[in-house]
Amino acid sequence: MKAIYSIPLIIMLSGCMDMPLRWQPTEAQKRAADLTVTDLNYLHPRVAEGSKLVIQEATNAARATQTYVGLPKERPTSLAAENAAILDQANADAANQPTLIQGAEAAGKLAFPLIELLLTGGISIGGTLGAKKVVSVFQNAKQTAADAQLKYDDTLTAIKEVVAGIQNLPADVKAQVKAEQAKSQSNGTKELVALAKI
């Protein structure tokens, strides 16, 4: 049971404390990537001959980014009035990295359905082969995984409530609480608490 409970955390932390999880590109980010390619294509025939190689290299790099993030629903036009706002939003979206709690939630949403799928497959194969003991083992594991998911979700909810409660304290009280906590926390815990902030 403890192994199942820890799988989402293992997935989430597999990047050695760098958050391996990232948000999906937003529409603004897709529009910014598309606009970069459009603008560079516009510039290519208009630059001096000596700069064409640099523009071509930049265009190829921009196309790689465009392919990675995907095309936007609505393609932007060069020098349109709304482009400044789109680029500002794209920059804000790019700076918005998942917190530890959001990463743990995302990892749980990925891991637990995968575990359930694998265990359901084991039950089906065991049933097809007539292996009642195997089916029983997989059914017990599936129930254990479901129980672990409930505990995992409840734990994340509790952590979010505690963090939000501390964040919503008056500034002087919050500083005092943090100072008291810091006295008894290891450096590793301090780093995790900093990452957990919502």
Structural class: mainly alpha
Number of domains: 2
As a percent range, the share of strand residues is under 5%
SSE order:
HHHHHHHH
Uncertain regions spanning at least 5 consecutive residues: 15-20
Q: What is the terminal-to-terminal distance? A: 28 Å
- Average pLDDT score: 84
- Rg to the nearest angstrom? 24 Å
Give the total of beta strands. 0
Count helical runs. 8
Shape: flat
Percent range of helical residues? over 70%
Q: In this structure, how is the largest beta sheet organized? A: none
How are the SSEs ordered, and which strands pair?
Elements: H1 2-13, H2 27-43, H3 52-69, H4 83-95, H5 100-129, H6 132-167, H7 171-184, H8 187-196
Helix pairs in contact: 1-5, 2-3, 2-4, 5-6
Descriptors:
198 residues, mainly alpha, 2 domains, flat
Molecular structure report:
With 198 residues, the chain is mostly helical. It has 2 domains: 27-95; 98-196. The protein has 8 helices and no strands. α2 (27-43) crosses α4 (83-95) and α5 (100-129) packs antiparallel against α6 (132-167). It is flat, with a radius of gyration of 24 Å.
At a glance:
The chain is mainly alpha-helical and 198 residues long. Helix 2 runs antiparallel to helix 3 and helix 5 runs antiparallel to helix 6.
